[in-house]
Amino acid sequence: MIDYKVYFASFLCSVILSLVLGLIIIPLLKRLKAGQNILGYVQNHLTKSGTTTMGGFIFAMSALICFTLFSRGSNTLAFLCLAVAFAFLLVGFADDFIKIRGGKNEGLTPLQKIIFQTAISLVTAIFVYVRGYTDFFIPFLNKWIDFGIWGCFIIFFVFLATTNCVNLTDGLDGLAGGVSYLYLLLSCVLILIQINNFSQNYINPREC
What we know:
Oligomer: single chain
Order of helices and strands: HHHHEEHH
Number of helices: 6
Strand order of the largest sheet: 1-2
Largest sheet: 2 strands, antiparallel
Distance between the termini: 17 Å
Number of domains: 1
Helix content: 55-70%
Strand content: under 5%
Number of strands: 2
Radius of gyration: 19 Å
């Protein structure tokens, strides 16, 4: 059975940290004039010019602190996810930094973004394949299946598609944050259900 107290504590800690860090970081970003520039031809958005950007740091720091506080054992897979998240964070930082420094709406070009996203996803997929993390737990069959090299392609596609979806959804009205919150909350519920119903086999015990 799941130790729900630990999961709830980590969730509550992340929420509180995000709120506290938001109160500190957002005013700091405003003082640094880290605001979003608006496309000139979108007249309805002109009043939103200067909306604070780089808010991803709030959630990144919260995730890092909670991981440090609540991690157990070697946590190779958890550390991998955290490292990949920070790699994509650097791409987002570069994009926002170019926008702010240049005083324009566009940072990295679409081609540059897809190249960086592809590179990170590819390195992650290769690492996962080399380490043998290609076993997928199929809840409907209650068994593990090793997809081998095809698992590498699946992982590559999931990282690239998910990250690019967030990138395309991002906007001035908390679009990425709102959508991601619902998606991650649902994913969390599904993971908890699967761990509880399948004797903690959601993550292969051999690799934890």
